[in-house]
Specification:
Residues 19-65 form the P-type domain. The structure is a single chain. By secondary structure, the protein is of the alpha+beta class. Among the domains are: 7-17 and 65-128 and 137-292, Sandwich (Immunoglobulin-like), CATH 2.60.40.1760; 746-858, Immunoglobulin-like. Helices cover 18% and strands 29% of the residues. The protein has an eight-stranded mixed sheet with strand order 1-8-9-10-11-17-16-13, with no helix packed on it. Strand 45 (823-825) and strand 46 form a beta hairpin. Helix 5 (377-385) runs antiparallel to helix 6 (415-431) and helix 10 (578-588) packs parallel to helix 11 (612-627). The radius of gyration is 28 Å and the shape is globular. Residues 1-7, 9-18 and 294-300 have low confidence and may be disordered.
Length: 859
């Protein structure tokens, strides 16, 4: 049925505006490619004028305000939205191939989700991404939309509750051409986050000097503003009043976001269509929910691997997974094990499992073509099933990566390739009983540019008329040619989807091979990759700035709905100092995905390779992580059920406090734990912001004496600041050297009371490795509350995990309440408790069955 929608329109038009010298903040670049001159500018029908403020990257050749399209007639109301017909109003062109007629469809998909799709009526590339329908109806949308023709066509999206304009294309520059699409968007705030994957120096984007962020998957180490492994055209805006919204642009071509000082964004892509989804929140966590719905490279011998494992176990640093990189392979061939240097690896993996340690190994996508016929099943079967990416002449494209010979690249968009890949993984598991898989080099990476014999021909696909500022000014630098062909189309369109297309068959095969819950870890990701894989932040540098940047990357991928992510602790490239690695282990204990990994030929940097103090620092940090694993596990379960973030910025919890908007040296686990690591070399003090709430020191229960203010205090090499937010209840478990042993320890609760002397929390638990526990109901869930009448209620709401009755709730710690002299548990006096000088109540030896309701009264 049709429903009433909020929209408006203006039909006035303005043509032939004077060629004035526009203010810097109102310009849209007419010559984003290099080499602008007055003559070239005039040939594009644009205005040439020096910037008012020099050296700020302000465009000096810019588009006139009336450049764009013109709306024909009135917006037509259709079921759940509007259709608008557009006609191009000028013969001037930037790069040629402009579409004369366009159709804009505004779909009111739910009260909180709006889709804007703009096409030209011709067959064009569209991303083959599965888009789940939203939950709920669209009878009361949080948004409205308005259209205008003044001075050219534009539209704006407003938040109905506040009247705030969230997305306004009147910034100008709207272009829809065969290989160049552009849209200028005015934003309601400078608090903009996301757009990845790039190495960003701050979580909140800067608008100074018109920074440009390019999205084109690239398998090279981070290099500040250069594009990296994943492609996520997704940004979140924290509005001035604390509301938030997110925008996702479903486009897989090479693209860039220019941060415009208005503030705004100029979005450009060189293919596809405009397919824009807006999520209205209104809270920061709502926007993510709505968008939803240790290791080393260089183990050259098994004895080296054994040495690391043995010293980690001897140092008693908690440790769950051992990784095997390409060094375990026979001549770096996928699906093989080096029979000399890693003889006995399969038996050693079995031995590790008896110690409670799991094993993850690696696969690269490219397959060597140089093995004798009949000796390498991965290639032989691939030839038989015709699974390779082709050149325009229909022959397989040849590249070069780690193997000695040339390689072919699988076409993961093809169903036969999916079947081939799943079969190979399952067969390899019969030889090496791994627990999970890690896929690398899947941007895809190539050690040569394009085909190793032919390179890349000269044509408009390989050398398009406009090129975003990609590395080396080439789309095929260290990857395939854009005109190479897979079953979904040309690589020009599908390059950014390569890791995404490999992820599903890898995850499926791993689960089928292992037969238990597992995960796949991918370097390259795209919109929706979190459905199948987790992510590590690539080949980062062992440097202090990368220590800080890792927080930014972690927070970004939580926005991108891949919360189980983190970087290589201590860095991958270069050699880490003991101080840096110690501080990184402290921070790394609080990445959702926590592993230590570095490059071949670098010094060992597992914590046990350093001196005694670093071992102790690492042991302490990881023991805290294991103590808090039930809380982290609960956050991950909540994400799996409803979306949202696990690690989050302070502004996500305190959106109306403007001080939090720029903080990226602190972060939170969920809503309950504030984490402030030391990020500076030689630091003797730590500066910390405490938002407007009660916070309690994790180690002592001492209440932080400031609120909505900065505090600074002296530190030692052992310091990491952890503070529990008032109003929170965190489930815990006694730490051990791995999770198998930790699960045998007693459970506990940390309670932190808020201003009303209340607190609440949730607790999720399951078998740890059963398939789809949430879908099958084979899990445990409890809700815990403490009210102002000092009664703690533990209420079981789901009791589907059969072995939960073996778990014991042994201790409860309460922070922020008055001194207590009497404790009753389920109506029976309990005498085993004490108060600390910091007014922390510790109740111990409870011996409660964890899957039964209980009540604790405190007086």
């Amino acid at each position: 049925m049709k429903c009433q929608k909020f929209f408006g329109f203006l039909l006035l038009s303005s043509m032939g505006l004077a060629q004035e010298c526009y203010p810097d903040e109102e310009r849209i670049d007419c010559h984003p490619d290099m080499g602008d001159t007055p003559e070239r500018c005039a040939a594009r029908g644009c205005i040439y004028c020096d910037a008012h403020v020099p050296n700020q990257n302000v465009p000096i050749c810019y588009l006139p305000r009336d450049y764009s399209y013109f709306m024909v007639g009135l917006p037509e109301q259709i079921e759940d939205g509007f259709r608008v017909n557009l006609v191009r109003r000028s013969t001037d062109t930037m790069f040629g191939g402009d579409s004369a007629n366009l159709t804009l469809i505004a779909e009111f998909q739910s009260d909180y989700r709006l889709r804007i799709k703009i096409t030209d009526g011709t067959p064009r590339w569209e991303v083959p991404l599965r888009i789940d329908p939203p939950s709920g109806g669209n009878q009361n949308p949080l948004y409205g939309i308005r259209f205008t023709n003044i001075p050219a066509f534009s539209f704006k999206i407003l938040r109905r509750a506040t009247g705030t304009t969230l997305f306004d294309t009147s910034l100008g520059g709207f272009t829809f051409a065969d290989q160049f699409l552009q849209m200028g968007i005015k934003l309601p705030s400078r608090n903009v986050y996301g757009i990845g994957e790039n190495e960003q120096p701050t979580f909140r984007h800067s608008f100074e000097k018109w920074p440009r962020w390019v999205l084109w998957a690239k398998g090279l180490p981070p290099s500040y503003d250069a594009s990296l492994y994943g492609v996520h055209p997704h940004y979140t805006v924290l509005e001035e009043d604390g509301n938030a919204h997110s925008v996702v642009i479903v486009n897989s071509n090479a693209q860039e976001f220019v941060m415009h000082p208005h503030p705004g964004i100029v979005y450009r892509t060189i293919g596809g269509i405009f397919d824009i989804y807006m999520f209205l929140g209104p809270t920061p966590e709502n926007t993510v929910e709505q968008y939803t719905e240790l290791c080393r490279f260089g183990y050259d011998h098994i004895d080296n691997l054994r040495t690391v494992v043995d010293r980690m176990i001897a140092s008693e640093i908690p440790y769950d997974v051992q990784y095997g990189d390409i060094g375990i392979m026979d001549r770096r061939l996928d699906f093989t094990v080096d029979p000399i240097n890693f003889a006995g690896l399969a038996e050693y993996v079995t031995e590790l499992r008896t110690r409670g340690i799991k094993f993850m190994t690696i696969l690269d996508p490219a397959i060597s073509v140089g093995e004798p016929a009949g000796t390498y099943p991965a290639f032989d079967l691939g030839q038989e099933m015709d699974v390779w990416i082709k050149k325009s002449d229909g022959t397989p494209m040849r590249g070069r990566v780690w193997p000695e010979d040339h390689v072919y690249f699988p076409d993961f968009h093809k169903n036969a390739t999916r079947e081939w890949w799943i079969y190979l993984i399952k067969q390899f598991h019969e030889e090496l009983d791994f627990d999970s898989l890690w896929i690398d080099m899947n941007e895809p990476g190539n050690f040569v540019n394009g085909d190793i014999v032919q390179g890349c021909p000269t044509n408009s696909i390989n050398q398009p008329p406009y090129l975003p500022r990609v590395r080396q000014n080439s789309l095929y630098d260290h990857t395939l040619c854009p005109d190479h062909i897979d079953s979904a189309g040309i690589h020009y369109n599908t390059h950014n989807l390569y890791g995404w297309s490999e992820s599903e068959p890898t995850a499926t095969a791993t689960t089928q091979a292992v037969g238990k819950r597992t995960f796949a870890l991918s370097r390259a990701t795209f919109l929706g990759s979190g459905r199948w894989v987790t992510h590590w932040l690539g080949d980062n540098w062992s440097s202090w700035d990368n220590l800080h940047f890792s927080i930014i990357g972690m927070l970004q991928f939580n926005l991108f709905r891949i919360p189980f992510n983190g970087p290589d602790i201590c860095g991958h490239q270069l050699d880490a100092t003991a101080e840096l690695c110690g501080r990184w282990m402290q921070l790394g204990a609080f990445y959702p995905f926590s592993r230590n990994h570095n490059a071949y030929g670098k010094l060992d940097q597992d914590p046990a390779a350093f001196n005694g103090s670093i071992i102790e620092i690492s042991k302490t940090a990881m023991s805290i992580r294991y103590h808090l694993l039930p809380y982290l596990y609960t956050l991950l379960a909540q994400h799996s059920m409803i979306g949202g973030t696990v690690a989050r910025a302070l502004w996500a919890e305190f959106p109306t406090d403007p001080e939090t908007a720029g903080i990226d040296r602190q972060f939170m686990w969920g809503s309950g734990l504030l984490i402030t690591p030391v990020l500076d070399e030689g630091a003797t003090t730590l500066r910390i912001y405490i938002p407007d709430a009660r916070f309690f020191d994790y180690f002592t229960g001492w209440e932080v004496p400031v609120r909505k203010a900065w505090d600074e205090f002296p530190i030692t090499p052992e310091t990491i600041a952890l503070d529990i937010r008032g109003g929170s209840i965190l489930p815990t478990q006694g730490p051990a050297v791995n999770t198998n042993l930790a699960r045998q320890n007693e459970l506990g609760l940390i309670v932190a009371l808020d201003d009303l002397m209340e607190a609440k929390g949730s607790f999720y638990y399951d078998a740890g490795d059963n398939l789809d526990p949430i879908g099958s109901g084979e899990y445990f869930w409890a809700e815990i509350t403490q009210d102002r009448f000092v009664v703690l209620n533990y209420t079981v709401t789901v009791n589907g995990y059969a072995d939960m009755n073996r778990q014991v709730m042994g201790n409860i710690t309460v922070n922020g309440g008055p001194a207590r002299t009497n404790i009753r548990v389920n109506g029976v006096d309990h005498t085993e408790f004490f108060m600390t000088p910091e007014s922390q109540l510790n109740i111990y030896n409870l011996a409660l069955v964890a899957n039964e309701d209980f009540i604790v009264e405190m007086s």
